[in-house]
Every structure is written in structure tokens, then in C-alpha cells.
User: Fold these one by one.
Assistant:
Number 1:
Amino acid sequence: MTNLAFKLETKSASDVDPIEEVKSALDGLANDVKTKLAANDNIADRLAKLEAKANRPAGGAANDNNENIEAKALNTFLRSGAAALDADERKTLNIGTPSAGGYATAPEYSTTIVEKLTQFSPMRSVAAVMSIGTSKVYIPKEATHLAGGWVTETGARPSSEPTFDQVEINAYEHAVIVPVSLQLIEDSFVDLQAYIAGMIAKQFGKAEATAFVTGDGNGKPLGFLDSTLLAGYQTVTAAQAGTNLVEKLIELHYSLPTAYAQNASWAMNRKTMGVIRAALDTSSKGTLWSDSLANGTPATLMGRPIAEMPDMADFAPAVAADTYPVAFGDFSSGYQIVDRVGVQIMRDDYTGADNGIVKIRARRRVGGKLVNAEAIALLKSDTP
């Protein structure tokens, strides 16, 4: 039988339990970490500041962070437009270099078309206007007055009756065709149809206004200044050099019968207005002219409004003699405009379809003619 020997190891009371020793070491380490973190003066804030600084683009030639400034410039452009970019950002976001931002930018186009000025004589604002339902109209007019006589109590009474005439006014057609590519209408960022319609209306207005002033009546209205009508007007002749212009204007004003003069308007172009204005400023009769005090209100000469008509001749020494640069009259009594068909605009998608063309067709039927020559007086520029 084998004898087992047991070795007993004893500990003194002063020995420390290993578990307790580990716990004590861990507590000490935790305290040490807390102390060091407190000594680092808010390390989280410092790390945030360092990160922001690292993302900030460097200036000058030493900029190694071009991707960041390009991103910032592109972001600014997309949010606020090109006007918000500073010089460095504009240089970085080079629209001429696609990789530097050109793909993200596009030119800007205005949807407003700059139009040339269209001037026309405002005959419709001073003449008489009526609508008709046929191709022509006959307007009766008195040719001669009736004439009574003084009689005695039992004497014979004279017999008299007026005579009449009539004025025939035809309606003439004014038309145009505007061919436009179908694809241009579809792809244009401008409303081409509305633009063309507005242009047609203005050009038709100009054409008819010119005809009302100088038209010869051949396929168009007969203007009040056509050469065939001049002999029927009351005329005052002024020196072509303009030496007696003011006096002749006063004479012209009082050559018109009072009933017409009370409703009369002056008609002249802008250059003639300037000549008259300058002549009045250098004389004692400057108060005859009164400038307009509000937009849309015409200037007046001797108390009557001035209609600016660019289709009338200039009054200037360089202009040939035998011209009629100024008219004064009651145009509502003297000139008649007749409207048969207003401006009609039609889109034709078919007749030009084989070639991809859309035709904008427009037409207008209108007429005009002098009906009473005694209601208008003319100033003639010539050697008296």
C-alpha cells in the first residue's frame, strides 16, 4: 500500500486576494485615463476644428485641394447663380473647360426679341372710322346749299333746294404670308406665333396709315395728301427758308372756318415740329406752343393738339419746293376710314408640309378717302 503524502501550504493573513488586486488595478487605470482626458482641454472640440481646417482650400499656388474649391464653386453656382461666385471660384469653375465645370453650366437666353421701331401716322385717332359689310360704301354729301330770299308781305317766295353728291369708298385688301419651319416653331424658346402675329399687326397698321396720308388710291386707300386732291384745299404758302414760318402758321390757323377749327388738329412730322418749336423759341410768340405735361397727351400749337405723322414731308430748306409739310383741320369731318375685315391670321400646316414649312397667312380689308376738303387746310413750302 502506497503512502500518499499531502503538502499543506499555508498563507498568512496579510496576503491579498488576486481578484481584489485586479479590481484595484482597473480602478486605478480608469482614474488615470480620466485625469489625462481632462488635461487635454476638450479634445473633441479640438478634433472638430482640425477637421474643418483640413477641408478648407489653401490659397495661392500651393493649393493642393482643388477638388474642394471646385465642389464649393459648383455648389455656389447651382444654389445662387454665376453672380454669387467670387474671383477664385469663377477661375476654378471654368465654363470653357468641361471637366472644370463646363458640363454643369449653360448660356442664358432672353425670351424677349429686340424689335426695330415701327412708326406710323395716327390717322385713326383723328379721322372718322366706320365699319361696313360690303366691298364698298357710298357716303352722300351736300354739293350746294339751298338758298332762301327776303320777301315782302305778299311777294312771291323763291323756290330752292340743295343738291347732293356722293363719295364712293372701296375696301382694299392688304395681305402677307410668313413661311416658318415647323421644327423652328416646335423647338424655339420664344413664342414665335405670338411674335409674328404682333409684327403683322404693327406692319399692317403702318401700311394703312401711310396710305391714309399719301396713298394714290390704286389698290389702296386714297390719302388726303394725294396730288389729285391738293387743288381743293385752302392753302397758305410759306417761304421755303422758313423766314415767315410763324406768321404763316398763324394765318393757316385762322384760314379754317371756326366750326372746323374748334375740333381741328395739327398734322406734321417730328422734324417739322422741331423747326416750328425753334422758330417760336427765338421770337416773342413762344407762348403759342405748349409742351405736353403728361405721357400720352400731345403738345399743342395755338391751343390745338399736334398729331405727329412721320409720313408727311419735312419743312426744311433742303427739301424741294411744292411740298405740304403741315396740315390743320378737323379730320373727323374731312377724312373717312372704312373697315371691312379686321386683321385675320391663319396658320396653314398643309400647303408647305412636304417641305416642313408652316405658313402664317394674314389679311386685312380697309379703305379711306377724303370726303370734305373744306375741313382741312394745308401749309405749302414754296417761294411766295
Number 2:
Amino acid sequence: MKGTPASHGYRMLAEWERHSRCWIGWPERPDNWRDNAVHAQRLFARVAAAISEFEPVTVCASASQWENARKMLPENVRVIELSMNDSWLRDTGPTFVVRDGSPGCERKIAGIDWNFNSYGGIEEGCYQDWSLDILNARKILEIEETPRFSHEMILEGGSIHVDGEDTCLTTEECLLNKNRNPHLNREQIEDELKAYLGVKKIIWLPRGLYGDDDTNGHIDNMCCFVKPSVVLLSWTNDETDPQYERSVEAFQVLSNATDAAGRKLQIIKLHVPDPLYATDEEAAGLTQGDDAVPRPSGRRLAASYVNFYIANQAVIVPQFGDQKWDNEAARVLGDAFPDHRVVTIEGAREIVLGGGNIHCITQQQPATVAE
């Protein structure tokens, strides 16, 4: 489609609005997923099965993995063949936008096909070849016969969160990083977000979660909206943890911010698990090579409960084996989403080892009928 989404009346919806489908990739690359991804595939299948109880799910798998994925997934999950460099469909799939029709009429759905450079390009990105990932959004939109807006700006879906009422959350650490769009300044990036997401105000947090070096601090590990004017913030009470400084810094920004409607923000603290580190066994299971960023033993994992998925009538929540904070996260999210069932996914550490979490591997497609 020509022009920008906003010029056609399109906007990005909040993630808690009703979905018609969830999209998930399928992991396989041995330099990112240990033991030829067998552990990660079990977790991805568990996530897909959990979400499929509340909304339709499509899993995208390569030709060599299609049969394996089909065997591991429930029959009600659609599996399609789609070649990818890696399985982060939040970042490489389309950002769906909608245009509301007249009362009683269906919404129009379109998708934004952003540019992608593997989180930083040849020198700083996560892998050297992203020639397949750069086609993911276009392929998905063609499968769904959905109009496509194309944009040359580098942007991953995990770097933005919206409230559905004209406000967008992001981080300076990611969007202002020179390895993304060095030719654009802050004001120009804001203009593009407004034109493509249909928002009117951007709230910038300085940094993302400590240790989230792969994405340069995506917002979806750090902070998200749970409803208009209410946010969840990754938090720690441990003043010796490097995350503490980042959490306090973000809290101060959010405390002084207002949304597009002029409302002060309510901040709900969601404590991160105690620090997690990659083990010798986990690192040894990787096929380390020149194409992907090294994942050595002892590195801190970017684990956050903020990285959950909102399905229709459910929230799908990662669990890391830290009983105290796992239980606390389920309680806090249950209070934040009183009309949703909290579904916990044990063993989500396996996804974090690859550089993301449940929100990172999923992408919601809005329903055509507003509810």
C-alpha cells in the first residue's frame, strides 16, 4: 500500500485486544539452540499448545523441520512451511495494524513490513545472514492476503509496546542505537512511529533489561502496558544487582511521564528472578561458529517476567525455576489481568538461553471484529 498506515486511518492495537491468530516460529539453528534445538522445540511446542486453547495458532517451520514440528504440535495448531534464519517472529514478522469501520462493520487489517538487520548489522548483529528473516513479514502477509505497508527503517517488534490509545513505549538503548538507523535522530524516529503505528506520544525509557545485549535493550523485557495508563516494570530490590540502577532509572522516567491522554502512569513492579547464568553443559550443547554471536558459559541470562504473551482470556507467563519469584509473578499478573487466566510455562529458561522469551517468539494478529 502507498502512503503511511496513519494516513489511511490504521493504528496498532493494544495486545490485550482480541486476536484472530497467534504466529510462532520454530527453532532449529544449532549455534543458538543447544543440542540441535530439541529442548527449545519442546518449549515452543508447549507455548503453542497453551495459546491454542484460547486462540488459533500458526507455527512457521522450515522445510527440513516441518514434519518434526507437525508431530510435536497439537492437531489444532496450523503448521506452515516458511524458511527463516531464526525463530523470533515478534521481531521479523509483521506488525499488524487496523482501521476501524463504521458501527457493525468489520475492521480492516494490514501489516507493517519493517526492515531488519539481525539486531545490529554485520558487525554487531546476532547472526551474519538474515536474508530469509527479512522476508518473513511479507510472506506472512501474503499467506493471509493482507495489505502490506513497507518501511525501510530498521525496527523489531519487541522494541515497541502500545496502549491502543495513542501512546508507545520504547527504549533509547535500542531505537537510538547507531547500529539500527544512524541516519535518523530521535525526533525523526518519533515521526516514523507516529506515522506507522498511529500513535501520538512516545515514552522513552533510557535502557532495557540488564544483560539483554542481543537486542540492545528491547522494551518487551523491561516494561509493558497492561491497560491504558498502567504499566508493568521489571524490578529488583537488590541494590547490588546491575538491574537495580536500570529499574530505578526507568521508574523515575515513568513517574514523571503522562500518556497521550495526559494521564499519569500507574507503575506495577514485577520482580525479575534472581540472576541466572548459562551453565557449562548448556554452552557445550551449542555448535559455536562464525555466523552467530558466541553464547559462552557463565553469561547472565536476560530473564524477565514482563516477557509474557496476552492471549484471548489468558496470559502465558514464563517460569524459571525460581519458586519465590515465579509464584510472585503469577500473582502480580493475575491481579493485573483479573479477567484472564494465568497459564504458567515451566522451563522457560530454555528460550532465554537463545536470547528471548515467550513474547519474543509470538506475534498477535488482531481480530477483524472489535469486542
Number 3:
Amino acid sequence: MQLPPQVTERAFERLAEIGAGDEGQALRVAVEGGGCSGFQYEITLDRPSDDDLVLEGKGQKVVVDSVSLPFLAGATIDFSEELIGARFTIDNPNASSACGCGTSFSM
């Protein structure tokens, strides 16, 4: 059995700050083919679908579709604020390598 992805409190807090749940939306984390390493993360605000895994905290939701779920098993979804900017990040134990910007990876 694969571990589901985890979402940090900081990520849920950021979603609450931007009011994502106010419109019935959730942070959608998906994996698509492409990017400089073979796969890339697609992070958007979207409405949950029936086949999504829904992770909830602080009144907010993060959703992962059934196709992306095996690629994100055991991953941690976080929010990072640094001098170069702020963004949602993914620490993925399934990735054998990642690009410098952190948006694409290989397995």
C-alpha cells in the first residue's frame, strides 16, 4: 500500500490566506509528462472531482487526481517563502532527479 501525499500546515495556512476555499476551490497538484526532466508538476486552483484524493486541513483542500497519485505517493506538499519568491513546493521521494527550478523531475 502506497502512502498518500502529505500537506504541511504552512501550505494549508497559505491556501487560507489567499481564500482558495472561499470559492469552493482546492489546490490541485498533478503530474504531467514534459519538463526538462521527463515529468512536471502542475499546480493550480480548481474544483475537486469525484475521483480525486482530497486532503483537508484548516478548512482548505488539496486534491490529487487518480492518475497523478502513484507519482506523488509519500510526497510532501509545502509552501516556501524565500528571497527569490514564494511558491508551493513538493518534496517527492519517488523522484530520482529534479531540475533546478523544482517543477520537473524524473523517476
